[in-house]
Amino acid sequence: MTAAPPNAPQGAAPLGSAPPGSAPLGSAPPGSAAPVAPAAAQVELLPALQDNYIFVLHNGVEAVVVDPAVGEPVVAWLRRQGLRLNALLHTHHHADHIGGAPALLAAWPEARVYAAAADRDRIPHQTDGVRHGKVFTLLGRQVRVLEVPGHTRAHVAYHLPAQAPGQREELFCGDTLFAGGCGRLFEGTAEQMHASLARLAALPEATRVWCAHEYTEGNLRWAAAEAPDDAAIADRLAAVRALRQAGTPTIPSTVAEERRTNLFVRARDGRELAALRESKNDWRG
Ligand SMILES: [Zn+2]
Q: For residue 44, how many other CB atoms are within 10 A of its CB?
């Protein structure tokens, strides 16, 4: 668990710090003025471990937890908010995305567990194996499954389209698309990652991108070194540095922001992405 940031934004209360019932609903990013209906499901961001984020979609009564890196602190957080676990969503099998499942399921054994059917052997407790194109409903929100291999061979992302005025498009993309970066290619090719990023970048521009790690500043420092004349990247790096100095998460970003300033998203093909990935892997800036 990370220490409480001194200036956590609304909706980003770190685990273990919020007194009962005090965490504000809603998690509008800085500068967002979009009103959200009180009954609409909201996304909360919970920092965990070194640099993980766990996301909680909830409507004030029930909660869906995305990529629980840890268990007990999330159970405690949900109990403090008076929330009941409805479902878990896993994007891939790595321990910092599924490790909290046993504790959460011990507390709420009836919760559904959604994960890639192709990873049934590596993601235990699955009740609902999903494949590309699968659509289901949680807390009144439609959830669309996108297969996005590259980081792992069976990585999936979950896209929640906007269905009502004031609702935001949400994307939970695990370790595939990062703010300013992309996941390492542990089990996939650069071509697969290129296609996966293209699939995510094709979502509506306003879609909020909830990626699972706070890697943004390092990603943009590398990008600024790689593309020193790119003003959009320089501007974003300055904004992200200010956020981090204030202890504020840089997540969520948006699809529009990633299209504009993410070199991996901007790569024209797998070959260019492979060269960028190699450069980033070797970067010690
Ligand atoms: Zn991972």
A: 24
CA of 113 to the centre of ligand 1 (A): 18
- pTM over 0.70? The answer is yes
Instruction: Give me the tens of pLDDT residue by residue for the chain, a chain 285 residues long.
Output: 444 343 334 444 444 333 333 333 334 444 444 444 434 789 999 999 999 999 999 999 999 999 999 999 999 999 999 999 999 999 999 999 999 999 999 999 999 999 999 999 999 999 999 999 999 999 999 999 999 999 999 999 999 999 988 889 999 999 999 999 999 999 999 999 999 999 999 999 999 999 999 999 999 999 999 999 999 999 999 999 999 999 999 999 999 999 999 999 999 999 999 999 999 999 988
**Half-sphere exposure of 6 toward its Cβ, with a 13 Å CA cutoff?**
5
Contacts (Cβ under 8 Å, ≥6 apart) of 24: 10, 11, 13
Q: Which of the listed CATH numbers 3.40.50.10420, 3.40.50.2300, 3.60.15.10, 3.40.140.10 matches domain 42-282?
A: 3.60.15.10
- Distance CA(280)–CA(190), nearest Å, equals 13
| 151 catalytically annotated | yes
- The domain locations on the chain are 42-282
145 φ, ψ (degrees, to nearest 5): -95, 130
Task: Give me 13's structure tokens.
Answer: 């209360």
> How far apart are the CA of 48 and the centre of ligand 1, in A?
14
CA of 170 to the centre of ligand 1 (A): 20
Structure tokens at 64: 């869906």
